[in-house]
């Protein structure tokens, strides 16, 4: 009973649930069983959003602590918050562009430096793929394509269980047609970034 | 998945479906003729899905004014022979409960399923009540699905069971089941060719629970439930997984998933009894299950409901077996479970360590990220002006009764605009109480949808009983918190058709309120003056603060896309007045204040707050 566990986290409005659906449907189309959990409700309001996906023959979508094979973090602070979920062998794909909590000025705990976060992530996992997904999304043509940059970054990670082609098909099935071109471009930006980090 | 596929997918097709979407497919396969709801997390997507496909599916769907009305609409449809479906969040059942209790007595003709979506761990609610108790209070059957496929299948089963025994059937999901996605193999839609119009045949002995009739009805109900308990004992839906164990787990719903994963992954010699028809409690089946067991573990969310049932069965039959669960401290008595909690509990019950995995921790302190109002949210502007008005009048110890909606987030600093909250509509009722019990000034808040839901009777009460308070109705033209469903004040209904728009001001005037003013909260000076006037008024003063939710894509919003707001650095003196708005788009780093262009919705509120006129309008390109 082995499953590939993906924990996705970030901030409301970043397109995390849509990304998770694209992955889930691609898994189903690949003939895998897949279960997913998502938390709605307060997500529009700038709070933390997370989804959990398990690809394989299991019943519960909730990832036990220490067993996520991949952490896909749309925001650096949220990557750090998700550390207890990941296994020591996990791959982490993280957007380095921060979204500060609205009350960070009054917060007794400061927002850590991005380099501190990335180093910490490296010490807790097998490999970290860190890049500025916000910039790539803008380059692709729209800031809201950030989620597809992240998806591309995930698919390029060694050991990711889904074929790029199936994921692209799933994108076509789940994203609005008019924004597909930008989203495809964004996906490729992310894909290339992870590949490049791997080569380096 | 395109949402239309909920309707168009053909038999045996597999879809990656949300539990709430699967509920709709199940209702369609059962040939539901009428569906109704009041939106509430975690059930909201059922209504969102239905409103998109109801017309094509040829059924009637409505967003009702509240859950009680929703249940009554569906009850009447079922009494007329249609299959009807009503669904709500757990606390919505409290609103519907009065009619629900009688409905158990009168029963139904067409099948009727009531889905209650519970929220263990309180992700988006005011409590985590366990609505399995409702099946017991009312004495109706309870179904508990564990995943989207089961939700779909049980919808159809629920309608059949309901129709066969002429009783409403209650289905209890939880957040983790309603908001779970999984692979669902759909069935055929032959049933959807069912009746869309019924006929009500009068039968007062059956449908009018005056005392003489009600005593008979109760007798009939008990007889029905005795028959259904035979089904609960025999149905394959209540399933034993026999693994030659000496320990047996009784479980249901989401907890079943965690238990089975733990049992299989650790290859435990543990038998499992999954209860899907969990009420009437299958006494005979439980007796059979425990026969060769030494001890039992009951795993359920949230209250020890089945655990007490199991103990009662054992006690009744004089069986001495240890039962682990919530009552002996093996499992927590509050909040939802998780795979980790199950492993800990099973470790205790089986006396072996199942949790040996290494878990990474970080030593770096992590700041919290609390939810707040969206950038551009009109509630922020209203609260800001109310606070300034109170300051300006030199008043202290103001009480802010609040209500259920996005605006409840005003409980946090810097707004501090929610002091007391019980339930939908309670802002108005409790304002009446504070007005009589204290000499403090009261400014309370309620949303448009919540006002329609439960705010009107207490407003009549306020006028009639000569109260003094200000009620601010935050009319953002939608039911925002649950995803933007229409309400009676919106000119659209659940079918997507044009509908009469109910005027809040007409209702307020109709209740006898003499002070009524409408403000646009984005115009702050005028708003503050009007709020001050209302606070000074000796009686019930109502302000309608009207400005659409920023999540509604409007023409007005599009016009704003041609410009952006920027801080003019030469003018900014870092007084931080703009930061008092606590807008996510405005932040201060290294001593300079900036506006995040991706987040800013150009509501222009910060511009009005800035004493230095240091926030300027710039025409700019979109998305940069």
Query: Could you please say which CATH topology of the largest domain in chain B applies here?
Result: Rossmann fold
Quote the distance from N terminus to C terminus of chain A: 34 Å
Low-confidence stretches of chain B: none
Order of strands across the biggest sheet of chain A?
2-3-1-4-5-6
Summarize the topology.
The complex is a heterodimer of chains A (200) and B (624).
Chain A: E1 3-11, H1 16-29, E2 34-38, E3 48-56, E4 68-73, H2 76-81, E5 86-95, H3 114-124, E6 127-131, H4 133-140, H5 146-155, H6 164-174, H7 180-199
Parallel strand pairs in A: 1-4, 4-5, 5-6
Antiparallel strand pairs in A: 1-3, 2-3
Chain B: H1 5-8, E1 14-18, H2 19-29, E2 34-37, H3 44-57, E3 60-63, H4 67-79, E4 84-89, H5 90-106, E5 112-118, H6 132-138, E6 142-143, H7 148-165, E7 169-174, H8 175-178, E8 180-185, H9 204-207, H10 211-234, E9 239-241, E10 247-251, H11 253-265, E11 270-274, E12 277-279, H12 283-290, E13 295-299, H13 305-316, E14 322-324, H14 339-350, H15 378-392, H16 426-437, E15 443-447, H17 448-464, E16 469-475, H18 504-510, E17 515-519, H19 524-536, E18 540-546, H20 555-560, E19 563-567, E20 586-589, E21 592-595, H21 605-609, E22 615-619
Parallel strand pairs in B: 2-3, 2-4, 4-5, 5-7, 6-7, 10-11, 10-13, 13-14, 15-16, 16-18, 17-18
Antiparallel strand pairs in B: 1-8, 6-12, 9-11, 19-22, 20-21
Helix pairs in contact in B: 2-3, 2-7, 4-5, 10-12, 15-19, 16-17
